[in-house]
Design brief:
Length: 505
C-alpha cells in the first residue's frame, strides 16, 4: 500500500536536507536569465510626443522623457514646463502547448492603467552669461518597462514535473528546501528502498504515459525611474547634460501548474497510485537602485543635430518574497482506485540580492525642417550578457547564474526611427523600433510601431500616442535533462494608449 512506504520520508528528508543546505542555496534558484533580462530590457515610456515619434528624440531635445535617455535634451528648453502622462496598457497572450494532444490556443487578456510620465523642467537664462545661454534643471518620473500579463495553456503530453524532482534529488545533492524537499514532504518523491535513490510514481510504467497538463499565470508590475537632470547650453551649438536616475521595481507572479492522470484520455489512468498534483508558485520582487547618464548634443547647422549618450549600469537592490506549495493526491492502493490520499507542502522564504544591469551607449541624429517638423534616428548598444547578480555568501550560486547569463544573452544594436510633421497648431507623429533578440543565436526580432497627434497652444499642449508590438517566445513550465520537455508557444501583443497634458510657464 502506497501510504506505508511514505512514513519514513520526513526523517530521511531532514537528514538529506541538512547536508544539501551546506552546498546549495536553493532559495536563489528564483533568479535566472529571464529575471536578469526582465530588468535590463527597457521599452522606454514617457510623454505621448516621445512615444508617438518612436522614442527617438535624443538629438531633437526639449522633451522630459529625455532625462532617461539623453539628458542633454533638457538643455533645449526655452520655457519652464510641466507634463503629466497617464497610460492605458493592454497585453494579450495566446498560448499553446507544442507536441501535445488536443491542445487549444488559449487567449488571455490583461489591462493596466499607470503613469507613463510626470515631471517639470525649470529654465534658467541669466543675463550677461556670455555664450553660455543658461542651464536647465528637470525632475521627472518615466516608465521603463511593463510586466503586466496573463497566460493559460493546457494539453496532453508525456512527462511529469516529478521527473525534474527525481533528477535533482538523484544528482548527488540529495534533498533541498526549495523543490525536492517540497516534493518529498508532499509524497511526490520518496526513497522506496532507503538506498539514497529517490523514486516517483511516474516511472513505474515501462512506457511513459500521457498526462493532462495545464497552467495559469498572472503577472503584475512595472519598472519606472525618478530622474534628476541638469543641462547647459553653449551658444545653441553644444548642449551637455547629466542625470541621476533612481529606478523603482515592482514585479509579482502567481502561477498554478496541474497534472492529472485522467482515465478518459488515451492511455490514461496508467500511473499506479497517482491521481493528480497541483504546484502553485508565488513571487513578489520589489526594490530600487541608482544609475547615472551623460549626454551631448551638437548642432553643426540649423537643420542638423547629432547626439550621443552613455548610461552606467543600474545597481538594483532587490528582495524576493516567494512561496511554493505542492499538493500531491495519490491512491492508497494501486489496485483500488476508489479512495485516495493527499498531502500538501509549502516552502515560503525571502531572499535579498543585487543586480547590475549592463552599460548602454546611444548615438542619434536629427534633421529639422524649420517649423514643419523633424526626422530622427537613434541607435542604442546594449550587451545583455553583462548583467550580473550579486549574492551575499552564495558565491557558487552567483557564479552559476552569471555564467548562464553570459553564455545565453548577447549584445544588440537597437534601432529607433521616427518623426513629426507640424501644421499650424497640429502635430502628427509616427515611429518604428527594431529590437533584435537578446539571446545568442536568436532570430526573433521585435518591431514596435507607434503613432500620435497633438495640438500646441501658447501656454498649453495636449498629445496622444498609440504604440503596438507583437512577439513570439517559447515557455517551459519546468526543465529536465532527460525527460520529455514541455514546450509552450506564447504569442503576445502589447498595446499602449497615452495622453499628455502639458503647461508652459
Amino acid at each position: 500500500m502506497r501510504n506505508r512506504i511514505t512514513t519514513a520520508i520526513p526523517f530521511l528528508a531532514i537528514a538529506a536536507t541538512a547536508g544539501a543546505l551546506l552546498i546549495l542555496p536553493v532559495h536563489t534558484t528564483a533568479q535566472n536569465v529571464a529575471d536578469a533580462l526582465r530588468y535590463a530590457q527597457w521599452s522606454y515610456g514617457g510623454t505621448a510626443r516621445f512615444v508617438g515619434a518612436g522614442g527617438t528624440m535624443s538629438a531633437i531635445g526639449a522633451d522630459l522623457s529625455l532625462s532617461s535617455t539623453n539628458p542633454a535634451g533638457i538643455g533645449w528648453y526655452q520655457k519652464s514646463e510641466f507634463t503629466f502622462t497617464p497610460g492605458l496598457l493592454n497585453t494579450t497572450v495566446n498560448a499553446r502547448m507544442l507536441d501535445a494532444t488536443n491542445s487549444p490556443d488559449l487567449e488571455s487578456l490583461r489591462g493596466a492603467l499607470n503613469i507613463q510620465n510626470m515631471g517639470m523642467v525649470f529654465v534658467s537664462q541669466p543675463q550677461n552669461a556670455g555664450k553660455w545661454r543658461g542651464s536647465n534643471f528637470a525632475v521627472t518620473f518615466n516608465h521603463l518597462a511593463n510586466f503586466n500579463g496573463e497566460f493559460a495553456f493546457e494539453g496532453i503530453t508525456r512527462g511529469s514535473v516529478t521527473q525534474r524532482y527525481q533528477e535533482l534529488a538523484n544528482s548527488g545533492l540529495g534533498l533541498d528546501d526549495y523543490e525536492t524537499d517540497l516534493a518529498s514532504q508532499a509524497s511526490a518523491l520518496y526513497d522506496f528502498d532507503e538506498d539514497g535513490r529517490y523514486d516517483i510514481d511516474y516511472e513505474i510504467p515501462r512506457q511513459a504515459p500521457l498526462l493532462f497538463k495545464s497552467q495559469t499565470g498572472s503577472l503584475r508590475g512595472s519598472m519606472s525611474e525618478i530622474s534628476f537632470a541638469l543641462a547647459a547650453n553653449y551658444d545653441d551649438v553644444v548642449i551637455i547634460g547629466a542625470s541621476i536616475g533612481l529606478p523603482v521595481v515592482y514585479y509579482s507572479q502567481d502561477k498554478t501548474y496541474i497534472e492529472q492522470d485522467d482515465p478518459k484520455i488515451a492511455n490514461g489512468g496508467a500511473v499506479p497510485y497517482f491521481k493528480d498534483l497541483e504546484l502553485r508558485e508565488q513571487l513578489t520582487t520589489f526594490g530600487g537602485g541608482v544609475n547615472a547618464k551623460l549626454g551631448l548634443i551638437v548642432r553643426p547647422s540649423q537643420f542638423l543635430r547629432i547626439a550621443a549618450s552613455v548610461h552606467t549600469p543600474s545597481v538594483l537592490s532587490l528582495s524576493d518574497d516567494y512561496e511554493s506549495s505542492l499538493t500531491y493526491n495519490y491512491y492508497e492502493d494501486a489496485s483500488e482506485k476508489g479512495r485516495f490520499l493527499g498531502k500538501t507542502a509549502s516552502s515560503p522564504g525571502r531572499f535579498e540580492y543585487l543586480l547590475n544591469t549592463p552599460w548602454r551607449a546611444t548615438g542619434g541624429i536629427g534633421i529639422l525642417f524649420g517649423k514643419n517638423g523633424f526626422l530622427s534616428a537613434d541607435m542604442e548598444f546594449v550587451d545583455y550578457g553583462k548583467s550580473r547578480f550579486r549574492y551575499n555568501g552564495f558565491s557558487s550560486a552567483e557564479q552559476s547564474v552569471n555564467n548562464s547569463i553570459q553564455n545565453q544573452l548577447a549584445d544588440v544594436l537597437n534601432l529607433r526611427i521616427g518623426g513629426e510633421y507640424a501644421y499650424d497648431i497640429f502635430r502628427f507623429r509616427a515611429g518604428i523600433n527594431r529590437l533584435p533578440s537578446p539571446y545568442q543565436g536568436g532570430n526573433n526580432t521585435r518591431y514596435i510601431l507607434s503613432a500620435g497627434a497633438g495640438i500646441r497652444l501658447k501656454g498649453f499642449f495636449m498629445d496622444f500616442a498609440f504604440r503596438s508590438s507583437r512577439m513570439e517566445e517559447r515557455y517551459y513550465p519546468y526543465l529536465t535533462d532527460s525527460a520529455p520537455v514541455q514546450e509552450v508557444l506564447n504569442k503576445s501583443s502589447h498595446g499602449a494608449l497615452l495622453c499628455t497634458l502639458g503647461v508652459k510657464f
